[in-house]
Amino acid sequence: MDGIRRATSSDAPAIATIYNHFIEHTIVTFEEQRVTSEDMAGRMERVLASHDWLVLEQEGKLAGYAYATRFRERAAYRFTTESTIYLSPAFLGRGLGAALYRALLERIFELGYRHAIGAISLPNDASIALHERLGFVKVAHYPRVGKKFGQWIDVAAWQLENPSFDDARTPRP
Predict the structure, then answer these.
(1) What is the pLDDT of residues 93-136, one digit of tens each?
(2) How many domains does the chain have?
(3) End-to-end Cα distance, the chain
(4) Domain residues for 142?
(5) Which of 117, 110, 88 has its CA nearest to residue 19?
(6) Please, which pLDDT band fits residue 172 given cuts at 50, 70 and 90?
């Protein structure tokens, strides 16, 4: 059935297929080696233990995924997440990413997190537009911090604050 739902380990092969396209053909991820379904299942298990990972099904296929994970390892960062979204190239440009990302943000804010940070390899006008459409604000720019396909790549960060954050509530560890 089409829609957005929580990811399960059975989604790992389709998620790996989507991600491997971006590894092999784009600078949006700094990974350079393909991941296996087993690698992806392990990553998903670790993320789902404390955060959330959602998938979008469209036309009977897994069209994309989004997840949030720890922003940094130090304890003081425990209220902040780093969010990520990938759509299959076949489903780009249909507005599906906004619905999926919005669902992820609602979920992580329900879990009690204060901030979501999206790191974007530049240039990436579509990702910048998506983040800003959802209320993210650019907060950092790191020139030439990664090298892929023989070129130096900038990374910038966009941040969204939970409008209903409750200091009395602590997110899951």
Answers:
(1) 888 999 999 999 999 999 989 999 999 999 999 999 999 999 99
(2) 1
(3) 32
(4) 3-161
(5) 88
(6) low
